[in-house]
Amino acid sequence: MKWKTDDGGWSPYLAGALLGLLAIASVLATTQLMGKTSYLGASTTFVRAAGLIEGTLSPDHVATNMYYSETKVRVDWQFMLVVGIVLGAFLSSITDKSFKLEGVPPTWEERFGPSVGIRAFGAFAGGIIAMVGARLADGCPSGHGLSGMMQLSASSFVALIMFFGIGVLVAHTVYGRRAS
Amino acid sequence: MNTGQWLGLVTGVFFGFLLQKGRVLRFDKQIGAMLLKDMTIFKFMLSAILVGMVGILLLSDFEIITLSHKPMNVGAVLLGGALFGVGWAIMGFCPGTSLGALGEGRWHAVFAIIGMVVGAALYAELYPFFKSTVLAWKDFGKIGLPEALGISPWVIVPIFWAGIITLFFWFERKKL
After folding, report:
1. Least CB–CB distance from A5: residue in B23, B82, B148
2. Are the C-beta atoms of residues B69 and A149 closer than 8 Å to each other?
3. What are the Cα distances from residue A67, in Å, to A72, A155, B15?
4. Which of B110, B91, B90, B88 has its CA nearest to residue B100?
5. pLDDT (tens digit, 9 = 90+) per residue, B63-108?
């Protein structure tokens, strides 16, 4: 087994195992420093971001919305974790020269052509559907897939099977054929 | 910034760094997994789970940390999971990786991020409806698999490890 991939990345087994160590360090650190165990996750931050943006337009609406009230719209630990992901990925990609500006990914282009507009629409529409699903299921591949599985949560096993099972079906339908 | 925010930021930088080094942020890796052609994201994710699981369950056994299960609400997990799968396959990112993809220059992730913020706002409006329908069907509460099956987590962990390691060997043999 190779520790480096051909493009200068790390073996996914190695990088993944290190992420496992980070997850352990993170639950310890949040428990010790914040008094409450927090688990890696991402999708709740999108609710808080939506609430913060909506709050600048209509603070009353956000204040009276049941979901925003339960979620507590504020810049918290997870919000900054998500900001940190952007920085960490930037630092890693700049230092190993894998940073690349990309408007349309290769697999998408093979199927739908080089139009940025079509890709933007797909990403936007997919984003809406995925986030409604993630909030309903109460987690995404971080919250359910990583943190839930590490705790052996019953719901996370079911969620991950649904995420991937439906993903496989839809991906084969959407990208299975090649553009002529 | 307070302690929690700093801690989140530092943890996130490491998280993003490892996601990028594992090369799992890319649209083509995520769709490659769904097309069953490239299992990089599963090698990464399952390796993290194998390692993290042992530490987290041990720390919980010693009562140093507390577990925080998400509710096993049947309708929510099935319907929400299915909707997520549909959106994930079209968008080609999940919430965490969309941000990382932006960090490594894949700027079309911006449209996915905007879509997800809109989706979150939409969910906030639909929440009362979901609460009286899908979320009200059947909720088994915040349970772990060990309690659900009535066995010790330390019986499940070795079986899980054995299954995943076997899967890894299969991935490598098939060059997935």
Report:
1. B23
2. no
3. 8, 21, 28
4. B110
5. 999 999 999 999 999 999 999 999 999 999 999 999 999 999 999 9
